[in-house]
Design goal:
14 helices, alpha/beta, 17% strand, D-Maltodextrin-Binding Protein, domain 2, 2 domains
């Protein structure tokens, strides 16, 4: 499998959420009941969005889309890459983190020469998926994550700016009352290289890269959102052309997404999930991938009992995350969010709510609990 070569390692450098706006012709998705050909942007290199990995691996979507339909899954190493593809209407559904998902809704309406993209479902929320601090191996031992962040005062730190890691890092610095000597904008490739070269004191990074760096002995965990009550999240976005033209496909895909989240939530499937993630990534060991979603972390290094909560729909808890993340994006010098609050119609999870109700379920549909490494198999 050479998916990374197909899509290019160079896109790791695309950390900015600034996206192009150009007039697009409406995509014709056909009539209700007809077969449809979909292109899905997803992130097997972002653990919180692994319902896409499961839907790709198990092909749940085939149960719910019209006969003869196809779904091509294309890897994006950052959510901004997927949003760019959706803005150009080259991809139709996207799995991504909170920041690019919010930014996509402002990329904006066809009447203004953009592309109308909506958030249609919640992949999950967590305090230790995107919100993770790593420190160099020779850093002191810390009593807790807050002490670790205080140690970063005057140190060389980094994160992919404009991503959920950036929001978390800035919040942690503020709450700890510290100022790093430098807070660099570095992608996950450069962060890994700099930890290996011992040129970095600390960095905020997401899973499964955090687990991969730790497993390689390049750095160790130090803090997470658990230490600062900071949520991160993953979301599904969809072209409004698809939503409006094909309500049957919209609903069908959400049915498949619910199947995928229920599959993830069942620990009996943990090995199968890790195997699917291994098949859809490169150079990441199955145990590392298992650890990123199911493995426990010591409490003094930012560990918590819940690895991921599978919300599926926008609850008050999720809405609070959306509000905070949108305000953060609006505060940036380059504003990927056009307003301080997400635009009216930017979130349309009504069909997801209907799907959940029809199954007799409520949010969250599952909670992935942290497990000791001895339970890996």
């Amino acid at each position: 499998m050479r998916l990374l070569k197909k899509f290019g390692l160079g896109i790791l450098a695309a950390a900015s959420l600034a996206l192009p706006m150009s007039a697009q012709a409406e995509v014709n998705f056909g009539k209700e009941g007809e077969k449809v050909d979909l292109v899905i942007g997803y992130q097997p290199y972002y653990t919180e969005s692994w319902s896409g990995v499961v839907n790709n691996g198990k092909q749940f979507w085939k149960k719910y889309l019209p006969e003869g339909s196809t779904a091509e899954f294309q890897i994006g190493l950052q959510g901004s890459v997927i949003v760019n593809a959706m803005t150009g209407e080259k991809q139709h559904i996207g799995y991504m983190g909170d920041m690019p998902a919010i930014a996509s809704t402002f990329k904006n309406i066809k009447a203004r020469g953009g592309t109308d993209i909506r958030i249609v479902a919640v992949l999950g929320t967590s305090k230790q998926q995107c919100n993770i601090f790593l420190v160099r191996n020779d850093a002191p031992e810390f009593a807790n994550g807050r002490e670790a962040v205080k140690w970063m005062d005057g140190k060389l730190t980094s994160a992919p700016h404009g991503a959920c890691t950036d929001r978390f890092a800035r919040l942690a610095f503020e709450k700890a009352g510290i100022k790093p000597a430098k807070y660099l904008n570095q992608n996950i490739e450069i962060i890994t290289t700099n930890f290996r070269a011992k040129k970095l004191d600390a960095a905020a990074i997401w899973e499964p890269t955090a687990s991969k760096i730790v497993a390689a002995g390049l750095a160790r965990r130090a803090a997470s959102g658990e230490d600062f009550d900071a949520l991160d999240g993953g979301f599904m976005v969809m072209l409004n052309d698809l939503i409006s033209q094909r309500p049957d496909v919209h609903r069908g895909w959400l049915e498949a997404e619910l199947d995928a989240q229920l599959f993830l939530a069942d620990f009996a499937n943990a090995s199968a999930v890790a195997e699917m993630a291994e098949a859809q990534t490169e150079k990441i060991d199955k145990k590392v991938l298992w650890s990123s979603l199911y493995g426990e972390t010591a409490k003094n290094q930012g560990g918590g009992d819940v690895k991921v909560q599978l919300d599926f729909v926008v609850t008050p808890r999720v809405q609070g995350l959306l509000d905070d993340a949108t305000a953060f994006l609006y505060s940036l010098p380059k504003k990927p969010a056009a307003e301080a609050k997400i635009r009216d119609g930017g979130v349309v999870d009504g069909v997801a709510q209907e799907v959940l109700k029809a199954r007799g379920l409520t949010s969250p549909v599952g909670i992935v609990k942290a497990r000791p490494s001895s339970e890996y198999k």
